[in-house]
Structures are given as C-alpha cells and as structure tokens.
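Box 3.1 A note on notation
Throughout this textbook, protein chains are presented in two layers. The first layer is the amino acid sequence; the second is a token string describing backbone geometry. Keep the layers aligned when reading.
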Amino acid sequence: MEVNKPEKIFFYNTIEPEGKYWTAIAPLVERVHCEPPKEIYGRRLHHYAHQADVMRLQILLRTGGIYLDIDTICLRSFDLLLKHPCVLGIQDFPDPKRGLCNAVILCEPQNTFIDEWLKSYSRFRSTGKSHYWDEHSVLVPWDLAKITKDNRSGRSDLHVEPVESFFRPGWWPSEQERLFSKNESFPQAYCYHLCRSQSQGVYLNKVTEKYIREMDTTYNVAARKFLPNLS
C-alpha cells in the first residue's frame, strides 16, 4: 500500500484473520471471501497451494491487476512495469534450471498468456508436495513464454523481468541466509519473496517486532519501516 499506492487492495481468503495486525489493516483493504477451487478440467487440486495457484490466474484473467503472494514485501513501485500487458519474473535454482514464478504477477484483463497458462492445467498431475509440485507454477510458464537466449520473452503478450527484480535472494538455504541473517543490498529488487515454505521453520518463526527493530538483516531493514505502533 505504501510503496505502490494502488487504488484498491483486495485480500482474497476463506477464513477472516484475527489479531492486532488484521484489526489495523482491515479498514484499508477489501476482503473478498472465496472458496478455493477443488478441481480444474476434471483434475483434482489436492493441496491448498495449487488451489491458490489456479484461483489467482482465474481472478487475474477476469479483472487484471497486480498479484502478490502474502509472503512478499515491496521495496519500490511497480509503475515502470505497468506499460506491459503481463509481467513475470525469472526464478532460478541452485542448478542451471530456471522458471517463471507465480508469486508476483502483473497483467491486464483477458491477457492471452494468462489464459493459455490457465488452460495448461488440463494437464495438471501433482498430488501435493511431489515431483510435480512446482510444474505449473514455475516450469510451465517458462515453457509457454518461449524464452530467448538473452532471457527475454518470445511473446508479445508477456514481459519477463530478470531474477533480480522479484526473486533474489532465492529460496535455497544460502540465499535465505542472505535475506534473514546477513544485511545486503539488492538495488534492482522491486520486492523480496520470503519463500515461507522454506524459511518458516528456520527463520520466520523467530522473527518478532523486537528482532526486526534491533537486528540489521536484509529483511529486517526492509520490514522495519512498515512496523505499526501497536500495543
């Protein structure tokens, strides 16, 4: 809200949150109660993460907008990216493999790339945290994007940002250490993705307001300015 200054923020969820942070922010966002899809194209969506993967594409195809995973923190405005019909960012891996991660998506309504991505779920085959866990959230969009040798999209309906824009630091341990233990600068980053499924037990469970205020880490320095003065 402070970084991007959107006209409106929609918060999609099934069960309304509780606690002082929700009480503080609730008047400033529009909560949208939703029931996640349990299947698509006759394919069962076993895990809540895959249900959310599908739902974000359905909503963006209908309304357009900026989608952000709840474990992202914005650093600078996305305004320069809004000229593109759709924007995704590269996510890399410890090995040479690369993908386009769905934790950050910008797009216009009825974008043809988003439509094709959603239709790819007719081939969905993950049963949860299996070998195919991130197939449709990271690997399929990479294939659909027709990435060129210089890591650009080969399509007119999609713009691809380098890994430094949305997904550096990365999700594996040495990268998570750069975010939560070290204090580094990432001037090209529009946001950080905290990769909660990897960082929860090692780092996030230990993060408190006091820790954020007192310890200079990459994440803490970014988050500190947004801490509310709540009792």
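The longest strand covers residues 98-107. The mean pLDDT is 96.
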